[in-house]
Amino acid sequence: MTNVDPEAVVLTETVNGAVTQLMYIETWDGLYAPIGVRKPEGEGPFPIVLLAAGNGGEGMAWVRDAVKNRAYIMDRLAEAGMASAWLRYRTEVELGYNDGGALVRDVRQGREMFNRGLLEYEDEIAIAEHLKTLPWVDGERMGMIGMSHGGEMALKITSEWHGFAAAVASEPAAHEYLALTPDDTAFVAESGMRNIEEMQMAEVDKVRRRIDMEVAGKRIAAIRTPLLVMGRDEDHLQGIFRTTYELLHEAGKDAEWVSYDHDFHGYVFPVRGDSGEYELNDVQVGAIDHVVNWLAQRLKA
Questions:
Q1: Which residues neighbour 249 within 8 Å (Cβ) at sequence distance 6 or greater?
Q2: Residue at 110 is within a domain
Q3: HSE of 236 in the Cβ direction (CA atoms, 13 Å)?
Q4: Sign of CA dihedral 36, 41, 47, 51
Q5: Around 25, how many Cα atoms within 13 Å sit in the side-chain half-sphere?
């Protein structure tokens, strides 16, 4: 027999000396997404920051690796009085956001019916909605850090859902969100899907010429959440990162821009190396200081 409630699974592990809760959260279609939670000392309720990186998949195994080997940011947030959770969500769908349209939720035969399949950013909203119901979470002081595709998810989420008090979009790969037409550095792979891994979009002028300003403008106009947009000086997508910020600023949104010169994509989420120590330098420490302080101020930690 087990003491775990099958409808509210919470398992506790001690990882590198820190107590971590592993949870399965029900998403809107009844499937479950895994998260790994770390809390500060005390009973709460705490502000909480959701952490998202990359384009999804890999399940609880990915979460357990993250709370072991990408927990530097969790440690820093806990020191500042904030809980945090590494998330995993369903795999990104090629152009699913652009082609699928707005989600419509209706009822048929007494149960929900959707007009399309759910997308990964909607899993994060479902997770956030659930966490807001927990007694140790201060639902009015919830934030997120999204990196790369996770940064684009931050934009998609804040365009539709206004439950975050603050969000960080770090190196946001926002080409779909901005309705950008790739140049000839992208190509169609044998699978029939686009290969945009080496797409060269370092210049703002180039990006602005290739995005659908009307579509991007409507999406940005709906944002109410304060956003910190983070670039990376020599990244081949720096033009996308900077353009994202500029469009937010031009729309009168509460947005801040910072950029750092670092050779690691995802510098805001340091990774533990083979030595067992985190591989990070003074640039990363400074960048993470800025993120943690910005969130602490916005979330009143």
A1: 255, 257
A2: no
A3: 9
A4: negative
A5: 29
| Nearest Cα residue to 163 out of 47, 10, 284 | 47
Q: CB count, 10 Å around CB of 233?
A: 12
How many whole angstroms from its chain centre is CA 273? 23
Give me the amino acid identity at 63: V
Q: Quick check: 1 pLDDT over 50?
A: no
For residue range 4-47, list pLDDT tens digits in order.
899 999 999 999 999 999 999 999 999 999 999 999 999 989 99
Q: Specify if 273 maps to a domain.
A: yes
Residue 163 lies in a domain: yes
Alpha helices, DSSP H, located in 142-270? 149-160, 204-210, 213-221, 238-250
- Identify the domain containing residue 138 by its residue range: 10-101+118-298
The pairs formed by 276-280 with CB atoms below 8 angstroms and a separation of 24 or more are 278/72, 280/72
pLDDT tens string 238-266: 999 999 999 999 999 999 999 999 999 99
Residue 277: pLDDT band by 50, 70, 90 thresholds? very high
Q: Within a domain: residue 27? A: yes
C-alpha neighbours within 13 Å on the C-beta side of residue 170? 24
pLDDT per position as a tens digit, 135-153 = 999 999 999 999 999 999 9
Find the helix or strand (DSSP H, E) in which 126 lies: helix 120-131
For the four alpha carbons of 299, 40, 66 and 94, in that order, the dihedral sign comes to negative
Return mean pLDDT, the chain: 95
CATH of the domain at 249: 3.40.50.1820
Domains identified in the chain, total number: 1
Distance (Å) of CA 234 to CA 185, 200, 201: 17, 11, 11
